[in-house]
Amino acid sequence: MSRKPTETKTRILDVACELFVAKGYRDVTAQEICSKANANIASINYYFGSKFNLYLEVWKHAEEVAMETYLKPSNFEATPDGALEAYINARISSVLDEGSGGWLPRLISNEMHGGPAEEIKEFIKERIKEKLAFMYDLAKDFLGEGATDLQINIARQSFHSQCIHLNVVRHHKKEYFEESFKPNKDEVKAELIKMIMGGLRSYREEIRRGEK
After folding, report:
1. Which of 80, 92, 132, 150 has its CA 20 to 30 A from that of 73?
2. Is residue 90, in this structure, part of any structural domain at all?
3. Full domain range(s) for residue 173
4. What CATH number did the domain enclosing 88 receive?
5. Rounded-to-integer distance, Cα 92 and Cα 66, Å
6. Residues 81 and 139: beta-carbon distance below 8 Å
7. How far apart are CA 204 and CA 115, in angstroms?
8. What is the 3 state secondary structure string of 1-32?
9. pLDDT tens digits for 71-110?
């Protein structure tokens, strides 16, 4: 009994996710994807139009998985403190996730270290713009009405850069990702959140006292 075309398309997308996440766009061939997905070499063009279009679908799928696993908007509807801490928790959790919930930070990491494929630069730029706007609102609500635009942007960059750095360290398997270290991921996450939130709360208090 032959498989339905939709099953083949899903299988190709699943395999492409695994390969692009593990190796990056340039180091994965259409033949490799089709071979592992047990599909005809023409299947990628048939279902997706091109290898690049398939790569875009992988990004979209990884974003959907991350959203469903960690980044649901309803997770950030608490108090300003609670919303920001929940977001930082979600970002760190996704970086530490070795499964599908960690696909998105790995795709981002691949593009950061390999230099983005020319065709995907605009796609990534638009995605980043959306996320920066969301983080700006989180930082603005957290700091309160007395914060200036510069202070809000500095606060946003503070927690955003910590999450990026964690992804870079994971990518290179340095510091607490080294084989000899074998960290307790929950402990790493708890300490990072404590440090990030502690610094941001201290910054907010200085703003409130007029010291910034």
Report:
1. 150
2. yes
3. 58-208
4. 1.10.357
5. 12
6. no
7. 36
8. CCCCHHHHHHHHHHHHHHHHHHHCCCCCCHHH
9. 888 888 889 999 999 999 999 999 999 899 999 999 988 8
Spell out the alpha helix ranges (H) of the chain. 5-23, 30-36, 43-48, 51-69, 80-96, 103-114, 121-143, 149-172, 185-208
Tokens 């608490």 appear where?
78
**How many angstroms separate the CA atoms of 129 and 149, rounded?**
17
Q: Indicate the number of domains in the chain.
A: 1
Residue located via tokens 């340039």: 26
Structure tokens at 95: 């970086």
Nearest partner of 84 among 136, 43, 31, judged by Cα: 136
Q: Which long-range contacts (CB under 8 A, 24 or more apart) does 44-50 make?
A: 44/12, 47/5, 47/8, 47/9, 47/12, 48/9, 48/12
Those residues whose C-beta lies under 8 Å from the C-beta of residue 130, and which sit 6 or more positions away, are none
Report yes or no on 2 lying in a domain: no
d(CA 179, CA 115): 27
Q: Among 88-97, 103-112, 117-126, 141-150, which stretch is predicted with the lowest mean pLDDT?
A: 117-126
Domain contains 47: no
For residue 182, the Cα-to-chain-centroid distance in whole angstroms is 22
